[in-house]
Specification:
Low-confidence stretches: none
Strand order of the largest sheet: 2-1-3-4-5-10
Radius of gyration: 19 Å
Number of helices: 10
Distance between the termini: 32 Å
Structural class: alpha/beta
Largest sheet: 6 strands, parallel
Length: 296
């Protein structure tokens, strides 16, 4: 039975991974009380004690605006800790799956970023996530870095749940319509991860076989929209929409909604490499959204 260490079990993706990984082997998922990524000794002790074959790091500092002030905390969790995890993985012979973000790009490319495109983050969050990618890749272990984007789900803190809350509080909302990306359901990320792992586990030695396809992959829902388009689609599909206080959803440019952290204007990711390597076809973002609402 494959031994897996899941880090970040209470996050949006981690919560879904607890379900999707359960059938693949033994999953140890310590909480932040036992594994705090700001405490290197805890990272080392957990990995050396459990000695997993596969480490899945779904933990991250994700507060994009707050990262502009809490730079050290963001860098420790997103940049330094993944490197420590990867080095410890090497010590116990484990492979690693790590998640990153579309925000490693500056958003100037309108056609969809490929894995070979050069990152150029424009905010602290993106810079710390890029540092984490580089640290994992430098550890010389079998690894997958899965870049995703605009992650949402039915729990935690995300754009979708914020819109739902505001729709019940306000009659009008103004939403940015000139930032373009691919909303991606946390369950899609978890299920895709499990499918990739199941392919490797079926080959009996997951780390040895994962080594052959190690590298960086983009994992998002297909097609793209703006934040306004995402909110509009959600509110149109929400079965509770008739009970909302909201009456008007106004599109606005980014300049009318200034934030501490700059956002990339176009951050769509090309997922062709993932599809070719693992045979995974990514659903349209709207189809995933419908599934979420049907499963709620």
């Amino acid at each position: 039975m494959t031994k897996m260490l899941l880090i970040g079990k209470d996050g949006q993706v981690g919560y879904e991974l607890r379900r999707t990984l359960a059938s693949l082997g033994q999953v140890y998922a310590p909480g932040v009380d036992l594994l705090d990524l700001t405490k290197p000794e805890q990272i080392k002790n957990i990995i050396q004690t459990f000695r997993p074959e596969v480490i899945i790091n779904a933990a991250a500092y994700t507060q994009v605006d707050k990262a502009e002030e809490e730079t050290e905390a963001a860098m420790m969790i997103n940049g330094t800790a993944p490197g420590i995890i990867a080095e410890e993985a090497k010590q116990v012979g484990a492979c690693m799956i790590h998640y990153s973000t579309d925000y490693v790009f500056d958003g100037r490319l309108e056609t969809g970023y490929c894995e070979s495109d050069t990152p150029n983050p424009i905010n602290v969050y993106g810079k710390t996530k890029l540092a984490g990618e580089q640290a994992v890749a430098a550890a010389n272990i079998p690894y997958l870095i899965l870049r995703t984007s605009w992650v949402y789900g039915g729990r935690g803190q995300n754009f979708l749940l914020t819109i739902l809350r505001l729709a019940n509080e306000r009659e009008e909302l103004a939403i940015v319509d000139d930032q373009i990306g691919s909303p991606t359901w946390s369950r899609l990320i978890a299920e895709s991860t499990a499918q990739i792992l199941s392919q490797q586990i079926a080959l009996k030695q997951p780390c040895r076989h994962l080594e052959a396809c190690s590298g960086l992959y983009h994992l998002t829902a297909s097609n793209s929209t703006s934040w306004h388009g995402f909110a509009e689609a959600f509110l149109a599909l929400d079965p509770q929409a008739k009970h909302h206080k909201l009456r008007s959803l106004k599109p606005i440019p980014s300049v009318e909604y200034p934030t501490p952290a700059a956002r990339p204007q176009h951050s769509t990711l090309n997922t062709q490499k993932l599809q070719e390597q693992f045979g995974l076809t990514m659903p349209d973002w709207q189809d995933s959204l419908k599934l979420l609402l049907e499963s709620a």
